[in-house]
Each structure stands twice: as structure tokens, then as C-alpha cells.
Amino acid sequence: MRKLIVIDACMRDGESRTRRILEPLAAELGKRYEIETIVLDGDDYRAVGRKTLAERNSGYVPERIVEQAKKIAAADRLVIAAPFWDMSFPAILKVFIENMSLFNITFRDNGTYFDGLCRCEKVLYITTRGMNVRTGDPLDAATPYLKALGTLWGLGEVITIAAENMDYSTPEEIEEKIDAAVAQGLEICRNF
Ligand SMILES: Cc1cc2nc3c(=O)[nH]c(=O)nc-3n(C[C@H](O)[C@H](O)[C@H](O)COP(=O)(O)O)c2cc1C
């Protein structure tokens, strides 16, 4: 069975609207993919700073990180679920990406150009936004970043499913928006 990794950066657990969209889509994709979920927490990965860079430059990367990056590189599909924070996604997701962005595992570079090494052909990015920011709006700084990362790592197409204006909608409207995003997502899952 082909492998799919879910990267779950929904910090509000039971309250998370983003995760409510993720769950039925993951259940649907679970019929065709072997799913592994990485639930990000905040304490699990260290931002790549001086210490980590110095370690990397001396040739050392913790085995746990290398194994995780190899899994990402080998996955057939990725699903990223992350709420819209500070016009992008939570920093914990960026920290995770920095940790996984390893030379000769997720990408390589021949001295003049880089080359993605990931097997993945499609990424599904699921988000909910508090403000009325649509995907593709210049205020959406998350989708363009994930597309750029997709180019670096060689992830293929990045498809965004989003519900907007969640913090300014009535409870009924929020339910409708979640249902619409799930319906749109299930349609995408048919060919994902
Ligand atoms: C720390 C934090 C930062 C946020 N920053 C923004 C923002 O910059 N723009 C925006 O539209 N909504 C912002 N929001 C609102 C969330 O995007 C919105 O409530 C979303 O539905 C939360 O997703 P969740 O229910 O999955 O946690 C922020 C929420 C939090 C908790």
C-alpha cells in the first residue's frame, strides 16, 4: 500500500476547526493509503540555530531526525493541517520543516542548482483562517511558502483547502464552512 504522511500542526486539539476538516479526509484517504500521522506539539523539534547548524556542518544530525526526514522523502503523499496564524502557519511547522530539510535526503544541490528528492507527487494543505483571507490573496503567506517548499523538495502539486472568516462567522456559518471544505476535500481525495 502506498504511504501518506499527515503533518498535524493543529494546536487547539478538540477545539480545532482545521482538524475537523482533516479528520474525514484522512479517513477517506486511509482507504487507499497507509497513513502515518506526525502530531506536532511545540517541544518536539528544536529550531535550527547556531548549535544545530554547527552540528550539521560537522556531519552530525540526530538519528531520529534523519529517520523522520527519510520517511518524509519516501512518502507518496503529504497532508498538512495547520491553522492560519500570523498570516501564515504556526512556527512549529516551520521548525519541523527546517529539521526535515536535509541535504541528500529531502533535496540535493549540484553546486549550481538544487533538486528535490521527495517521492511525493501531491500535497494537500488544509487550513482555516480567522480573517476573510482567501487562498491566493497576497495576505495568505502560507500557501505560497508551501508551494516554494514543494519546489525545493520536489513534492509535486500543492492543493489548498481552506475555510475563511471563521472568527467573524456565526456558529451556524462556521458549521457550513467546515461542511463545504470537507465536501470539497472529499472531491479532491478521489483523485489524490
Ligand atoms: C496564535 C493565533 C494567531 C492567529 N493569527 C491569525 C492571523 O494572522 N490571521 C487570521 O486570519 N487568523 C488568525 N488566527 C485565527 C485562526 O486562524 C482561526 O481562528 C482558525 O480557525 C483557527 O484554527 P483552529 O480552529 O484549527 O485552531 C490566529 C489564531 C491564533 C490562535
Description:
This protein has helices at residues 17-29, 50-57, 63-74, 91-100, 142-153, 171-189, and strands at 2-8, 33-39, 77-81, 107-109, 114-116, 122-128, 157-163. With 192 residues, the chain is an alpha/beta fold. The chain has a single domain (2-189), classed as Flavodoxin domain (Rossmann fold, 3-Layer(aba) Sandwich), CATH 3.40.50.360. Bound molecules: flavin mononucleotide. Residues 10, 12, 15-19, 83-87, 128-131, 133, 166-167 line the site of flavin mononucleotide (FMN). Residues 10, 12, 15-19, 83-87, 128-131, 133, 166-167 line the site of flavin mononucleotide.
- Structural class by SSE content: alpha/beta
- Given this structure, which CATH class is correct? Alpha Beta
The tally of structural domains comes to 1
Distance between the ends: 14 Å
What's the overall average pLDDT, rounded? 97
Our Rg estimate from Cα atoms comes to 17 Å
Please write the string of helix (H) and strand (E) elements.
Answer: EHEHHEHEEEHEH
CATH-level-2 architecture? 3-Layer(aba) Sandwich
CATH topology: Rossmann fold
The number of helical segments is: 6
Q: How many individual β-strands?
A: 7
Which regions contain 5 or more consecutive residues with pLDDT less than 50? none
| Major beta sheet summary | 5 strands, parallel
